[in-house]
Specification:
34% helix, five-stranded mixed beta sheet, four-stranded mixed beta sheet
Length: 327
């Protein structure tokens, strides 16, 4: 095991109050409640108001995580925000969050690894803490995907939602992160992309007409890769710790599609009742997904002291990440 001295002090999450149901989507694109439930397991997702920024949701989740950790904003040494839907290209959303929290002693940067971003950020925070550079680190996964979803594309708009989740990590705290695994495969970078809006394709009238400023996805290929890569990532982090699947009390997977999650538990022959899901209520919130799910698990007191828990995610890039915790 690579270290027992970074632990999770507390967590928080935030979901916007506005609910977008499958019935609402039936009025926006040619789809049906039955199709969406059968193919994805999603019944509803949360959508933030126009004036509710990604950084606002991040701050709400962060305030709850700080309160639950008994930590003041001034005590933070570092804030890492993982998001693919920043308020602006620059400055980083983490700096905006740092300002809103008045976390005056914290360094801040964003980390982009799509849906794997929260676990990538936890891995990064662990490295900073164990190198002795920082003691208290706030990690946030937050997304306002509704600004980048193409609400005319029925094959993708049904999947995504908005929200934020956060945790505070510190040195020598209980609830240790035992092992982590992060990987990327840039040869699959076209599976999920927002083509325009970066320096390669600045947004102009032509791009707006082509709708390239919105998220594009190759659903079937993404599905297959998600099942394969997350299954391997779960096993990797467990084997690193010389444990077996029967030692694991709970898996908290990225909430991309209920069928992806079911396929992973089938492949692993792991009981589905030990796999946490909230996709039916939240949809896919990318970097916020595992963070929100993790906070719900703590609130619902699903895990008990010394339980082994695996977090796992895959996302655009493509990226994959997993993490083993002892609670
Ligand atoms: N309502 C009704 N019909 C639809 C809809 C819809 N919303 N969307 C597609 N269809 C139709 C298609 O046009 C197709 O029709 P056809 O057979 O006449 O051509 C049919 O349904 C089947 O389409 P498929 O794409 O084969 O459907 P599939 O079962 O693969 O489900 C889905 C599509 C839900 C997108 C699935 O592929 C998926 O979930 N993929 C993974 C997506 C994912 O996880 N993305 C996030 C990655 S993580 C990140 O970084 C953000």
């Amino acid at each position: 095991m690579n270290g027992l001295n970074t632990g999770i002090m507390g967590s928080g999450s935030y979901l916007p109050s506005k609910i977008l149901t499958n019935a609402d989507l039936e009025n926006m694109v040619e789809t049906s409640n039955e199709w969406i439930i059968e193919r994805t397991g999603i019944r509803e997702r949360r959508i933030s108001e126009k004036n509710e920024l990604n950084s606002d949701m991040a701050v709400q989740a962060a305030k709850m995580a700080l309160k639950n950790s008994n930590v003041n904003p001034e005590e933070l040494d570092l804030i890492i925000v993982s998001t693919i839907t920043p308020d602006r290209l620059t400055p980083s959303t983490s700096c905006i969050v740092q300002g809103k929290l008045k976390a005056i002693n914290a360094a801040a940067f964003d980390l982009s690894a799509a849906c794997s971003g929260f676990i990538y950020a936890l891995t990064t925070a662990k490295a900073f803490i164990e190198s002795g550079n920082f003691n208290k680190v706030l990690v946030i996964g937050t997304e306002k995907l509704s600004s980048f979803v193409d609400w005319k594309d029925r094959s993708s708009c049904i999947l995504f939602g908005d929200g934020a989740g956060a945790v505070v990590l510190s040195k020598n705290s209980e609830h240790s992160i035992l092992n982590t695994y992060i990987r990327a495969d840039g040869s699959e970078s076209n599976l999920l992309r927002i083509p325009a809006g970066g320096s390669e394709l600045p947004i102009d009238e032509k791009q707006l007409l082509l709708r390239t400023n919105f998220l594009k996805m190759e659903g079937k290929e993404t599905f297959k890769l998600g099942v394969k890569s997350m299954t391997e990532a779960v096993l990797e982090v467990i084997h690193q710790a010389k444990l077996s699947l029967s030692d694991i009390a709970l898996i908290i997977p990225h909430q991309a599609n209920l069928r992806i999650i079911q396929a992973i538990s089938d492949r692993l022959k792991f009981p589905s009742e030990k796999v946490f899901t909230n996709i039916e209520r939240c949809g896919n919130t990318s970097a916020a997904s595992v963070a929100i799910a993790f906070d719900e698990v703590l609130k619902k007191q699903i895990i008990k002291k010394n339980d082994y828990i695996v977090l796992v995610a895959f996302g655009a890039g493509t990226t994959v990440a997993s993490l083993l915790l002892r609670w």
